[in-house]
Amino acid sequence: MADTQYVIGPDRRAAPRILILLALLAASCARYRGPELPGAPAPSGGPPVTIRALLPQGRVVSLDLEDYVIGAVLGEVSPAGLQADAAERVLEVQALLARTYAIAHLGRHAAEGFDLCSSTHCQAFVDPGHAGAATIQIVRHAAQRTRSLVILATSGPIEAVFHASCGGHTSASTTVWPSAGYPYLRGVADPYCVRENEAHWTWTADAAELLLALRQHAVTRVATVADLKIVERDEAGRVTRLSVGVPGEIIHASDFRTAILRAFGPRSLRSTRFSVARRGSRYHFEGTGNGHGVGLCQAGAIARARAGQSTEQIIRTYYPGTHIGNLEARTRGQASIH
After folding, report:
1. Mean pLDDT over all residues of the chain?
2. Which candidate, 147, 104, 91, places its Cα nearest to that of 4?
3. pLDDT one-digit tens code per residue, 175-211
4. Max mean pLDDT range (1-10, 157-166, 218-227)
5. Looking at the chain, which terminus has fewer C-beta neighbours within 10 angstroms, N or C?
6. Buried b / exposed e across 165-187, counting CB within 10 Å, b at 16+?
7. What's the rounded Cα separation, in Å, for the pair 125 and 122?
8. C-alpha to C-alpha distance for 46 and 28, rounded to whole angstroms
9. Contact 144, 67 (CB under 8 A)
10. ∠ CA(218), CA(264), CA(278), 5° rounding?
């Protein structure tokens, strides 16, 4: 889910199945007992939680939640190049994201016969059997250390959206997806992201190609993109609205970017933190960051882990007002990982 291409919100959830899952977790999941979670109760057993995942090869498999978490972590982040302690925290963070996202979106593809896909629409997933033994060991350890834990707000598991690189500042969910208002998904300044990876990029496309992409995905009805202008940006510097055509039709930047990504692929318009200039019959885009810019920034999280920040500090930075715990945490106190 490093670059989610959809609108999130309560209407996207499969409420009946989630309620059943939450009940199962409340009955079966206790906080992991170990030096990272002092005083946590021992697991009490209970019915397992199963995730039906669509693998990249098109095959649907049923996995235990914790096995799914391992595959999702492998698909979304790599510990390569990190010192052991930093790698441990990065993988713990990603395990919490994977588990929280899976719970909140169980049944997202129910009409198609599975729960979650393996593309950026949901979460990437890699078969653990295809990873090296050393990598599997460290990822499995991170999953075990966070076993049964999720990121919680007052209403329950959060919308644990994340992206590859924010370019220096994350955005509020409402500026990227107007219908998705979550108090913990607000813009956060992130100098650590720039320290880790500035992620400057450029991309050029012909005006006729842009028009075809926008019309194919019903973003606009204009006859030409002879005049493409940025109308509004958010506090993070991301474009929120553009004017297309003459006279100008206002379109939302997330819709514009989604159409471009579908037509030209993930290496085209990597974020909405861009500037644009007309050069003859072509438009030249230049920007920073990679992904939608909401929630946790993976590049920033890696830099924070390198700097010694704890798993809990990293989570609370990108999701203000949340805490780590199981479903019982709302009444029995909060868990923490250091």
Report:
1. 82
2. 104
3. 999 888 899 999 999 999 998 877 799 999 999 999 9
4. 157-166
5. C
6. bbbbbbbbbbbbbeebebebbbb
7. 9
8. 5
9. no
10. 85
Report which residue type is found at 220: T
Residue 90 CA to its chain's centroid (Å): 14
Peptide bond into 247 cis (omega under 30): yes
Q: Model-level pTM?
A: 0.82
How many CA atoms within 13 Å lie on the side-chain side of 187?
15
Contacting residues for 41 by C-beta, under 8 A, at least 6 apart:
30, 31, 33
Instruction: Count the residues in the chain.
Output: 338
Q: In the structure encoding, which two tokens stand for residue 141, read together?
A: 């350890």
Give the residues across from 287 on adjacent strands. 201, 274
Structure tokens at 255: 């819709």
* Backbone angle region of 89, left / alpha / beta, with phi > 0 → left and psi within -120 to 50 → alpha: alpha
φ, ψ of residue 31 to 5 degrees: the values are: -65, 145
Which is more confidently placed, 305 or 248?
305
Adjacent-strand bridge partners of 162: 296
- Beta pairing, strands 150-153 & 156-157: antiparallel
Q: What share of the chain is helix, strand, coil (3-state, %, to 5)?
A: 35, 20, 45
Buried b (16+ CB within 10 A) or exposed e, 255-274: bbbbbbbebeeeebbbbbbb
Confidence of residue 143 (pLDDT cuts 50, 70, 90): very high
Residue (of 40, 271, 79, 256) closest to 170 by Cα position? 271
The predicted pLDDT at position 107 comes to: 82
pLDDT per position as a tens digit, 3-59: 543 333 333 333 334 333 333 333 333 332 222 322 233 333 445 688 989 888 888
Closest C-alpha among 19, 31, 159 to residue 101: 159
Q: Which residues contact 3 (CB under 8 A, 6 or more apart)?
A: 120, 163, 164, 261, 266, 290, 291, 292
* Domain residue ranges of the chain, discontinuous segments joined by +: 10-163+297-332, 200-288
270 touches 291 (CB < 8 A): yes
